[in-house]
Inverse folding.
């Protein structure tokens, strides 16, 4: 008999960001392995092709006011799906429940465990580290209870899940270090593209030294590292390669970033480009300077899918070990290692087609589905 699976997420699947795109890929993998698959998610007017046709949809909307959200966070309610999930579980039975990030199951531990279903929790990152590194995004009155309950939920699901899945070996090691005497059934999965990756050809670009950085240019985790790169590492890069140019493109660049870029040479900022892929294709190299948080930084995929070698801070390299071993990802953590990694990248002369094919092999839905299938069989859930 086919097992019934419920996928619970708080990601808005109409959005185009790292967390949402990772979730879209996860849904496709589970939907390809389970015929009877359902999803509870924050519904929007445009969910596009994010959810496969064979998945039963149970959308909900968060209509709470900002005041209500503020009150709820002090009550330990950090995800709006609680009433919907409780009601749904009373009316439907499942063999497996997948919690997409422990936030999605916050305050629901007892209700979900009471169903008797096997629970799989996907940990997108280490919430303790992520929330700490992005704490300035929120006022302290909201941040303190939010952080408390985020960490509480993460630890509860680490201990109460039948299977815990992380995106990087680094995150898995962190979780296991907290509970050295327990078998947390930890597995590292990674991420994948949720759309098919088509074959394509690449035109020669010549030897131009054009570098690209992309991302949300107003979000703290992106903004601060990019500003640090512009002020600290870009002058060093220019001293090694005086003809170099830098393109920074993304959503809503903050005034502080625009001001810093205006003080440097040969930097162009492109706000809200219509086609971010075209911007990246105009460069020869891609840079990801994100130096905080945990999890797997999907920004690097933007470079690889355009056939570009990538230079990144060591924090952003987690989960990309295969790309580093293959010589298309170059890692730094300070000025000295930056200079060395930069020169190795420029001298490597990687073929765009080779980088792209490796990207296809590592990050296709088919590859990720095979990895998931192996995990589920090992845990006797498939």
């Amino acid at each position: 008999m086919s097992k019934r699976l419920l996928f619970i997420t708080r990601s808005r699947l109409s959005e185009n960001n790292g967390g949402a795109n990772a979730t879209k890929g996860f849904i496709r993998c589970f939907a390809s392995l389970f015929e009877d698959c359902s999803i509870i998610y924050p519904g929007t007017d445009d969910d596009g092709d994010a959810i496969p046709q064979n998945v039963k949809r149970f959308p909900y909307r968060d209509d709470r006011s900002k005041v209500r959200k503020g009150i709820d966070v002090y009550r330990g309610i950090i995800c709006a799906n609680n009433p919907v999930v409780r009601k749904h579980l009373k009316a439907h039975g499942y063999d497996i429940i997948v919690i997409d990030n422990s936030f999605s199951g916050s305050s629901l531990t007892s209700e979900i465990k009471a169903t008797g279903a096997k629970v799989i929790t996907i940990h997108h990152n280490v919430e303790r580290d992520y929330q700490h590194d992005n704490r300035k995004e929120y006022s302290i009155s909201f941040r303190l209870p939010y952080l408390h309950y985020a960490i509480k939920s993460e630890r509860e699901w680490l201990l109460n899940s039948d299977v815990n899945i992380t995106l990087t070996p680094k995150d898995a090691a962190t979780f296991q270090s907290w509970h050295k005497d327990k078998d947390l059934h930890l597995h590292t999965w990674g991420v994948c593209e949720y759309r098919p990756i088509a074959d394509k050809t690449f035109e020669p670009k010549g030897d131009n030294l054009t570098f690209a950085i992309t991302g949300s240019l107003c979000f703290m985790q992106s903004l601060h590292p990019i500003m640090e790169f512009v002020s600290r590492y870009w002058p060093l890069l220019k001293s090694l390669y005086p003809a170099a140019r830098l393109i920074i493109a993304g959503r809503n660049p903050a005034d502080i970033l625009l001001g810093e870029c205006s003080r440097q040479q040969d930097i162009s900022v492109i706000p809200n480009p219509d086609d971010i892929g075209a911007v990246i294709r105009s460069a020869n190299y891609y840079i990801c300077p994100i130096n905080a948080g945990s999890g797997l930084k999907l920004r690097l995929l933007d470079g690889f899918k355009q056939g570009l070698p990538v230079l990144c801070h060591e924090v952003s390299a987690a989960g990309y070990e295969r790309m580093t071993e293959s010589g298309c990802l170059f890692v730094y953590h300070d000025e000295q290692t930056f200079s060395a990694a930069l020169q190795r990248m420029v001298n490597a002369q990687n073929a765009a087609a080779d980088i792209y094919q490796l990207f296809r092999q590592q990050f296709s839905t088919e590859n990720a589905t095979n990895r998931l299938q192996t995990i589920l069989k090992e845990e006797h859930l498939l």
Q: What stands out?
A: Residues 140-160 form the longest helix (21 residues). The mean pLDDT is 91. The two ends are 11 Å apart (CA to CA). The chain has 15 helices and 13 strands.
